[in-house]
Amino acid sequence: MAKKTNNQDLMDKIVSLCKRRGFIFPGSEIYGGLANSWDYGPLGVELKNNVKNLWWKKFVQERDDMAGIDAALIMNPKVWEASGHTGSGFADPLIECKKCHERYRADKTPEFLCSKCGGREFTEPKMFNILMKTFLGAVEGEKSAAYLRGETAQGIFVNFKNILDTTRKTIPFGIAQIGKAFRNEITPGNFIFRTREFEQMEVEYFIRAEEWEKWFEHWRKQMIDWIKELGINTKKIHEIEIGDEERAHYSKRTIDFEYEFPFGRKELYGLAYRTDFDLKNHFKEPPYKDSDTGEEFWPHVIEPSLGVDRSVLAILLESYHEEKDSAKDGVSRTVLKLPLRLAPYKAAVFPLLANKPELVKKAREVYEILKKPITQSSNYPITVTWDDRGNIGKRYYSQDEIGTPFCITVDFESLENNDVTVRDRDTMKQKRVKIKELPGHLEKFLKNS
């Protein structure tokens, strides 16, 4: 029977599994680490790339009303002045413990108790801009100051005319981007949920002002569909209407999609109606001209914003299960029931015994067969792995723990009948499949996933 763990216990197990199996490592660990810095390992980068590739396919490649972009991380500082990010609209209230000088966000410190020293005396709040500052050139100074981008959206807005001129898109249409953003958060934490360096998947969808409600609802439904595609239980998703006093300075309406994380209900994604705020700040003259009427205007914008790292965390939390295997006298196994299209490896190939050359040779033949057909014909990035460590039972459970959907074993019967055993991750049921039919057998499941 499947068993889901809860709260901090679950988070501890996720963090442990991620490091132990090569999903996510603490950043700069051999030098003592760097607070709230994380590196994606061999399996983590595959999972992360699968999420990004699926998003790009769904929201860019499969739509005629979308164009993609990959803008620079460092932009002219005037961009951030025009967008309002250097002002108070992109700042957090900061307080400091008078005893140990630890700093906190004033609005995120319950009962104003210092978690480091237990002190209760704090300075008065002062605003702290969270853009990360850097310097260009050989000499540091205000003339050489620049910023790491605080969001990916501004790279889209400043390239609006360039994209119009080169794609000939007409409203309504969107511009999409996946990329890193940086914020000098005062209180990051909860593993990869809140970090100073993070990755966003964003769309800026340009519309006429009078149609904003229609397109807002369109993108709300698109985001719910996306959440379902990731295998996230929609019962754990809560749509929160953000009030006037809490919305970003550019937004006329914002919905947060909150997820029930073990550490509480927190924002997973956001959907905002940015009006024409950004384009008006960047373009003094209307940047869009209707080809039929000749009307010139500043388009309004709907922005679905989705965090890559938070997506990965929610997927891991949803997929993590601990189960009892009745066939093994109640011995438990840990399994990541990842959606097939997101799993880092789609299949693992084993020889039943690693010390039998004839089995190893046959298994290697199967491995090479699978690498080419699946990779060439699948709609999703496909990876097949080889595993000959330990006994067959340990290999099964090892692959279960990293979410590999299928384990393929070459045994002595395979030498006579040219078939293999295919084991399903979720049910643990096994089936004999002819080697020549194996690529089609796996692809059938992957295409329907």
List strands and helices in order, with pairings.
Layout: E1 2-3, H1 7-21, E2 24-26, E3 38-40, H2 42-61, E4 66-68, E5 74-75, H3 77-83, E6 91-96, E7 103-105, E8 126-129, E9 132-135, E10 145-148, H4 153-158, H5 160-167, E11 173-182, E12 197-207, H6 212-229, E13 237-241, E14 253-261, E15 264-275, H7 277-282, E16 288-289, E17 296-297, E18 300-307, H8 308-319, E19 320-325, E20 331-336, E21 347-351, H9 357-377, E22 384-386, H10 392-402, E23 406-410, H11 412-417, E24 419-424, E25 430-434, H12 438-447
Parallel strand pairs: 4-11, 21-22, 21-23
Antiparallel strand pairs: 1-19, 2-3, 5-10, 6-7, 6-8, 9-10, 11-12, 12-18, 13-14, 14-15, 15-18, 16-17, 19-20, 23-24, 24-25
Helix pairs in contact: 2-8, 9-12
Could you give a short description of this structure?
The protein has 449 residues and is of the alpha+beta class. Helices cover 31% and strands 29% of the residues.
What does this 3D model show about the protein?
The protein is of the alpha+beta class and 449 residues long. The protein has two domains: 2-83 and 150-316, Bira Bifunctional Protein, Domain 2 (BirA Bifunctional Protein, domain 2, 2-Layer Sandwich); 345-447, Rossmann fold, CATH 3.40.50.800. It is 31% helix and 29% strand. It has twelve helices and 25 strands. The chain has helices at 7-21, 42-61, 77-83, 153-158, 160-167, 212-229, 277-282, 308-319, 357-377, 392-402, 412-417, 438-447, and strands spanning 2-3, 24-26, 38-40, 66-68, 74-75, 91-96, 103-105, 126-129, 132-135, 145-148, 173-182, 197-207, 237-241, 253-261, 264-275, 288-289, 296-297, 300-307, 320-325, 331-336, 347-351, 384-386, 406-410, 419-424, 430-434. The strands form seven sheets. A seven-stranded mixed beta sheet has the order 4-11-12-18-15-14-13, with helices on both faces. A five-stranded mixed beta sheet has the order 22-21-23-24-25, with helices on both faces. Strands 1-19-20 form a three-stranded antiparallel beta sheet. Helix 2 crosses helix 8 and helix 9 packs across helix 12. The longest helix has 21 residues, at 357-377. Residues 1-5 have low confidence and may be disordered.
